[in-house]
């Protein structure tokens, strides 16, 4: 190997260490109301042209990549909410109320910021000059097209306040804040589905899986080492070992989407979880792609397990929401499993199932080895009596694995163009 590749490797390692450290500190779901107590920071105004965090807006560590324009006629228009907060001035020079349309996360951050502004400058209010853009006034890929970005000022339009206004926006939970112009501050947020994980993720305690031997078991009793019904890469129904839980919180209560199929299956999962779907009835496994549950529509097809050990399509007949307890996300060797009889991915928050599965390759290998040498006894016991046992692998902190996933994705998509060749193979 020549010197250049070694230098490249060293640089990559340094970047990896920095990224990982940063992610470890920031965790997976920063934002309004997330987990820990808000940190007390000194309010230092942002400098003109400064942005926080100091990475590009579309980096996963900031607001993430653009996901495509939302128009009034698109299905995703339902993802936008209207902000009628009386404490915020909306410029609405378009006279269409477009400045009031935004993603839920953007609205939450904005409402929080409006309170901070009134506290900071009594008599002054937050003013929005631009939010959702339906008139193509921004460059391609702008988050304004998805209602994930706002341009803000104060109601008195005192430009001397804008540096501090930007810092208040950072405190309010915006994922990327840019003192972009002398006349406004630009703020943006992650996509809603990518932060749904802040309330925990994936499947409720009542989600049922089939373990080897044909026994049905609720998520709450599933343990690492159990072999659950899943799909092989060829689309064969197989039993796949649970290696660990990417998310696990038995005490939490969350809102789950309930997807009901024409065959009477009722799958409960969080909106940010990946599920294999097709918009029309496709007979083959490979014709199904992984997408967020929030994007599944009535009439779409999912794959269900048949009694004869096969897998077949079934149409979604209704979608509703329900609050349930517990959040569980088992990672299997195959990266997927049947929950409530419906085939779903083991992954959430990252849109790309195959990239996520690839990124977790080393971890799957490691935990597979650990179970091979240490877990057989507990697995056997588990299969025999179906009682609660502890698998070979400890239930490690959620944040660790989510950070690990983001870390790998960052490396692949931002720092290593060669590895990013793997990315297009998704879906
Ligand atoms: Ca406007």
From TrEMBL:
<keyword id="KW-0217">Developmental protein</keyword>
<dbReference type="GO" id="GO:0005886">
    <property type="term" value="C:plasma membrane"/>
</dbReference>
<dbReference type="InterPro" id="IPR009045">
    <property type="entry name" value="Zn_M74/Hedgehog-like"/>
</dbReference>
<feature type="binding site">
    <location>
        <position position="130"/>
    </location>
    <ligand>
        <name>Ca(2+) 1</name>
    </ligand>
</feature>
<comment type="subunit">
    <text>Multimer.</text>
</comment>
<keyword id="KW-0812">Transmembrane</keyword>
<keyword id="KW-1003">Cell membrane</keyword>
<keyword id="KW-0564">Palmitate</keyword>
<dbReference type="GO" id="GO:0007224">
    <property type="term" value="P:smoothened signaling pathway"/>
</dbReference>
<dbReference type="GO" id="GO:0001708">
    <property type="term" value="P:cell fate specification"/>
</dbReference>
<keyword id="KW-0068">Autocatalytic cleavage</keyword>
<keyword id="KW-0645">Protease</keyword>
<feature type="domain" description="Hint">
    <location>
        <begin position="308"/>
        <end position="352"/>
    </location>
</feature>
<feature type="binding site">
    <location>
        <position position="144"/>
    </location>
    <ligand>
        <name>Zn(2+)</name>
    </ligand>
</feature>
<feature type="binding site">
    <location>
        <position position="99"/>
    </location>
    <ligand>
        <name>Ca(2+) 1</name>
    </ligand>
</feature>
<feature type="binding site">
    <location>
        <position position="186"/>
    </location>
    <ligand>
        <name>Zn(2+)</name>
    </ligand>
</feature>
<dbReference type="InterPro" id="IPR000320">
    <property type="entry name" value="Hedgehog_signalling_dom"/>
</dbReference>
<keyword id="KW-0862">Zinc</keyword>
<comment type="similarity">
    <text>Belongs to the hedgehog family.</text>
</comment>
<dbReference type="GO" id="GO:0055002">
    <property type="term" value="P:striated muscle cell development"/>
</dbReference>
<keyword id="KW-0732">Signal</keyword>
<dbReference type="GO" id="GO:0042063">
    <property type="term" value="P:gliogenesis"/>
</dbReference>
<keyword id="KW-0449">Lipoprotein</keyword>
<keyword id="KW-0333">Golgi apparatus</keyword>
<feature type="binding site">
    <location>
        <position position="94"/>
    </location>
    <ligand>
        <name>Ca(2+) 2</name>
    </ligand>
</feature>
<keyword id="KW-0479">Metal-binding</keyword>
<dbReference type="InterPro" id="IPR003587">
    <property type="entry name" value="Hint_dom_N"/>
</dbReference>
<dbReference type="GO" id="GO:0007267">
    <property type="term" value="P:cell-cell signaling"/>
</dbReference>
<keyword id="KW-0256">Endoplasmic reticulum</keyword>
<dbReference type="GO" id="GO:0000139">
    <property type="term" value="C:Golgi membrane"/>
</dbReference>
<dbReference type="GO" id="GO:0008233">
    <property type="term" value="F:peptidase activity"/>
</dbReference>
<dbReference type="InterPro" id="IPR050387">
    <property type="entry name" value="Hedgehog_Signaling"/>
</dbReference>
<dbReference type="GO" id="GO:0005789">
    <property type="term" value="C:endoplasmic reticulum membrane"/>
</dbReference>
<dbReference type="GO" id="GO:0005509">
    <property type="term" value="F:calcium ion binding"/>
</dbReference>
<dbReference type="InterPro" id="IPR001657">
    <property type="entry name" value="Hedgehog"/>
</dbReference>
<keyword id="KW-1133">Transmembrane helix</keyword>
<feature type="domain" description="Hint">
    <location>
        <begin position="200"/>
        <end position="306"/>
    </location>
</feature>
<dbReference type="InterPro" id="IPR001767">
    <property type="entry name" value="Hedgehog_Hint"/>
</dbReference>
<dbReference type="InterPro" id="IPR036844">
    <property type="entry name" value="Hint_dom_sf"/>
</dbReference>
<dbReference type="GO" id="GO:0010468">
    <property type="term" value="P:regulation of gene expression"/>
</dbReference>
<feature type="binding site">
    <location>
        <position position="94"/>
    </location>
    <ligand>
        <name>Ca(2+) 1</name>
    </ligand>
</feature>
<feature type="binding site">
    <location>
        <position position="133"/>
    </location>
    <ligand>
        <name>Ca(2+) 2</name>
    </ligand>
</feature>
């Amino acid at each position: 190997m020549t010197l250049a590749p070694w230098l490249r490797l060293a640089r990559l390692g340094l970047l990896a260490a920095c990224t990982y450290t940063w992610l470890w500190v920031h965790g997976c779901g920063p934002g309004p109301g997330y987990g820990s107590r808000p940190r007390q920071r000194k309010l230092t105004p942002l400098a003109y042209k400064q942005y926080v965090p100091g990475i590009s807006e579309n980096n996963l560590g900031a607001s993430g990549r653009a996901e495509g324009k939302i128009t009034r006629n698109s299905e995703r228009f339902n993802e936008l909410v209207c902000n009628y907060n009386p404490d915020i001035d909306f410029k609405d020079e378009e006279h269409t109320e477009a400045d009031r349309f935004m993603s839920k996360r953007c609205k939450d951050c904005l409402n929080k910021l409006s309170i901070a502004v009134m506290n900071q400058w009594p008599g002054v209010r937050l003013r929005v000059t631009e939010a959702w853009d339906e008139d193509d006034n921004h460059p391609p890929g702008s988050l304004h097209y998805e209602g994930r970005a706002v341009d803000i000022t104060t109601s008195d339009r005192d430009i001397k306040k804008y540096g501090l206004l930007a810092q208040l926006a950072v405190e309010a939970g915006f994922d990327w804040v840019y003192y972009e112009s002398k006349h406004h501050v630009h703020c943006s947020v992650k996509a809603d589905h990518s932060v749904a994980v802040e309330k925990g993720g994936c499947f409720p305690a009542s989600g049922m899986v089939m373990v080897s031997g044909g026994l049905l078991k609720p998520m709450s009793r599933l343990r690492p080492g159990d072999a659950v019904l899943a799909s092989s890469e060829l689309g064969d129904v197989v039993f796949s070992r649970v290696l660990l839980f990417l998310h696990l919180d038995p005490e939490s209560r969350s809102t789950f989407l309930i997807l009901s199929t024409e065959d009477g299956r009722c799958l409960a999962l969080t909106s940010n979880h990946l599920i294999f779907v097709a918009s029309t009835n496709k007979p083959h496994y490979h014709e199904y792609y992984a997408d967020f549950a929030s994007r599944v529509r009535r009439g779409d097809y999912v794959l269900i397990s048949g009694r004869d050990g096969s897998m077949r399509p079934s149409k979604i007949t209704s979608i509703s929401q329900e609050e349930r307890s517990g959040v569980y996300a088992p990672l299997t060797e195959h990266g997927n499993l049947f929950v409530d009889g419906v085939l779903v991915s083991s992954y959430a928050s990252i849109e790309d199932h195959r990239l996520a599965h690839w990124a977790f390759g080393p971890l799957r290998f490691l935990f597979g080895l650990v179970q091979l040498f240490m877990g057989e006894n507990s697995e056997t016991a588990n299969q025999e009596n179906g009682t609660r046992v502890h698998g070979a692998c400890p239930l490690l902190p959620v944040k660790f694995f989510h950070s690990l996933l983001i870390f790998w994705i960052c490396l692949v998509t931002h720092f290593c163009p060669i590895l990013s060749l793997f990315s297009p193979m998704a879906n």
